[in-house]
Specification:
This protein is an alpha/beta fold and about 475 residues long. Strands 1, 2, 8, 9, 10, 11, 18, 19 and 20 form a nine-stranded mixed beta sheet that branches. Strand 1, helix 3 and strand 2 form a beta-alpha-beta unit. The longest helix has 18 residues.
């Protein structure tokens, strides 16, 4: 039995699927130099004493030196940013403390809902879902597929199968105590996050000049922006620019430390902070509030039955007597991923900072009481899958959640070359392609063309005192003295 439509559901016509083409090599800090060159060329007289468009064209055709980009974080946001930068001819250096996809990017469910979201986030859902479909072909992903989603409610816990007796569940492997199971959305999809993140990283690293360094980012080196203007406002704007990143580098391979470290400075023109919940450390680096809570949650993996493989469907389950609100995602690779186990822990910023008990992905521990609760709940819904001896794997990760539950994407006010791409809450996997693409546009072109970032601006948490004396790009903000 299959719930999939006879032909794949198409995404919104506002974001049609199309091949992503490699653009000319021209990047962020480079874009500014290119614009300056173009202005100089247009102002210069041609042979007839007027501006020469042919000279301008030849100038634009000259190869530009790409900016030196350092991306902090080897999760899906950092790797997506590096991938889309590589398509613009801009190599990047990724700094990762543990290993690629070590945190939520390797442990999340990978549920993709292009038609969901609220008024503010709907465009991210639709556009990124279209990019996921394109990436599945570009990266030859094996785990991306369309999959329907069911709304499910368990019975009263009395042990009866299909206790409502109203109708059999849409999939046969829901053979436990099920009161209700009905189609919720037939246009959803899924991908295994580890595969996607790994492939994005592999492709980004194929570009000449790209590199991954394993170590911990300790700070970002800044220097004042030199301004030739005699204006007092210009001189006292307080604007700074990125010149490097200080890293405590491991001398061993990813995820394995031999105890030897060295502190190095990576010179760069651009720094992209994409460290999930640990991005809150950028508050001290840039002088801009980056408030973040890490929502630590448990997930499980069960071996799939033949029925699950034949009848795949994602489940969104009502809250049950164990305090679980399960989300169940059968994967094409043969396992059933279960999250929504309840009892999530809210981790404050102090615990995420250096020296905190959860200052690294490898320190995130699993609450066994929630493993037992979720195992019982899933076993009640599906005896043939969840009741066959418990999960084969248990794990935990943290979702990065800003106070308004919206991602932080864009340029850092008052710091040239500094960008944020973090705080994606429960939609990190879905939103990664559009987030990485728009950050690559900011770096390469100085503006985001693929999405409106107004509601996601990094400066939205700044106080009036923080804004005083600063320039948000070309606009004076607050008191200027």
């Amino acid at each position: 039995m299959s719930l999939l439509p006879s032909s794949p559901a198409r995404v919104s016509s506002a974001s049609p699927r199309r091949p992503l083409r490699r653009a000319p090599r021209r990047g962020g800090a480079v874009a500014a130099r290119a614009a300056s060159d173009a202005r100089a060329s247009s102002d210069a007289p041609g042979r007839d004493g007027t501006s020469s468009s042919s000279d301008d064209a030849r100038d634009d055709a000259k190869p530009r030196t790409p900016p030196r980009v350092v991306i902090l974080g080897g999760g899906i946001q950092g790797c997506a940013t590096a991938y889309y930068l590589s398509k613009r001819g801009i190599p990047s250096t990724i700094v990762e403390r543990v290993s690629v996809a070590a945190a939520a990017s390797g442990k999340a469910g990978g549920f993709l809902a292009g038609g969901w979201g609220d008024r503010v986030t709907e465009p991210l859902h639709a556009k990124s879902a279209a990019l996921h479909e394109a990436l599945a072909e570009e990266l030859a992903l094996e785990t991306y597929r369309k999959i329907p989603t069911l709304s499910v409610a368990g019975g009263d816990g009395g042990g009866g199968s299909n206790s409502s007796n109203a109708a059999p569940p849409p999939v046969s492997w829901l053979d436990g105590d099920v009161r209700r199971a009905e189609l919720m959305d037939d246009t959803t999809a899924q991908v295994t996050p580890m595969e996607l993140t790994t492939r994005l990283h592999e492709e980004a690293m194929k570009m000449e000049g790209a590199e991954t360094i394993y170590g911990e980012a300790e700070s970002v080196a800044l220097e004042p922006v030199e301004n030739d203007s005699d204006s007092d406002d210009a001189k006292d704007s307080g604007e700074r620019r990125v010149v490097g990143v200080v890293v405590k580098k491991q001398s061993s391979a990813a995820g394995v430390s031999d105890g030897e470290e060295e502190t190095i400075t990576l010179p760069c023109d651009v720094c992209v902070v994409a460290m999930g919940p640990w991005s809150t450390r950028a508050s001290a680096w840039f002088g801009v509030d980056v408030p973040m809570t890490g929502v630590k949650s448990v997930s499980l993996e069960f071996p799939a039955s033949d029925a699950v493989k034949a009848e795949p469907a994602a489940l969104f389950c009502a809250e049950d007597r164990n305090g679980c609100h399960l989300e169940v995602y059968p994967r094409s690779t043969g396992e059933v991923y279960v999250c929504g186990c309840g009892g999530s822990e809210y981790v404050d910023e102090a615990r995420l900072m250096p020296g905190g008990d959860l200052d690294s992905a490898e320190k995130v521990w699993t609450d066994e009481t929630r493993v037992r609760a979720a195992s019982d709940s899933f076993g009640q819904l599906s005896r043939s899958v969840g009741g066959r001896g418990g999960p084969a794997r248990t794990q935990s990760c943290m979702r990065p959640c800003p106070p308004d539950a919206r991602p932080i994407i864009g340029a850092v006010p008052g710091v040239r070359g500094a960008y944020m791409n973090c705080g994606h809450n429960c939609w990190g996997i879905l939103w990664a392609p559009i987030s990485g693409k728009v950050v690559s546009e900011l770096v390469a072109d100085g503006k985001a063309a693929s999405a409106d970032l107004t509601h996601f601006a990094p400066g939205r948490f700044m106080t009036a005192a923080q804004k005083r004396g600063r320039k948000m790009r070309d606009v004076n903000v607050g008191e200027q003295w």
